[in-house]
Amino acid sequence: MQVGVLAVQGAFAEMEAYWREEGADVFEIRQLADLGRPMDLLALPGGESTVQGKLLNDLGLFAPIKERILGGLPVFATCAGLILLAEKIDDPGRRDATRPEKWFGVLPVAVKRNAYGRQLGSFTTRGDFDGKHDFPMTFIRAPAITDVLSDEVKVLSTFSGKPTSVRWRNITAFTWHPELNATA
Ligand code: GLN
Known about the structure:
The chain is α/β, with parallel strands linked by helices. Helix content is 23%, strand content 35%.
C-alpha cells in the first residue's frame, strides 16, 4: 500500500513511522510533483492547523489535495489534520485569527481547537476503540468534536461524552494520536 504523508509541518515523522510499521510504502508530500505518485491513502499529521493551511495554500497543494479527497481517496487524519478537514471550526470570538486561510471543510463535524487547554492540554487516557477496551489515547493540544453534522458520520471513540474519532465516507479522523500508541 502506498501512503502519502503530508509533510509540510508538524508530526509527520511519527505518522510515517506508524505507516512503515504497518507495512506500507510511505512517501512525503511536500510539493505538487509528489501528488503525481500512486497513492492509496493520504495521511494528515498533527501539528499547527493554521500553519499547515497556510503552507498548503502557498505551495499550491490545497486545491489538488481537496479534489483528491472529494474524489474518494482514503484519508487518515489526526488532530491538526482533523481540524483542516472539519466543516466548521467552533472558535467563537477568534474566528479570523484562528482559522486557517483556507481549510478543506469537507468532513461534516464541528471542532473546537485547543479544547483541553493550550499549555497543559496534553494527556493520555484509555477508552473503547476498534472493539478494544482500555485503548491508549494520547491528546496533544487536541481539538474536541463539538458537533456531528451528518447522520452518515460514524463515531469510533468518545471521551467525556464527546466523539474523539469519526469515520465518514473515505475519511477516518482522530482528535488524538493513534500513530503514537498503536502498539501500546
Ligand atoms: N492545537 C493544534 C491546532 O490547533 C493541533 C494540535 C495537534 O495537532 N497535536 O492546530
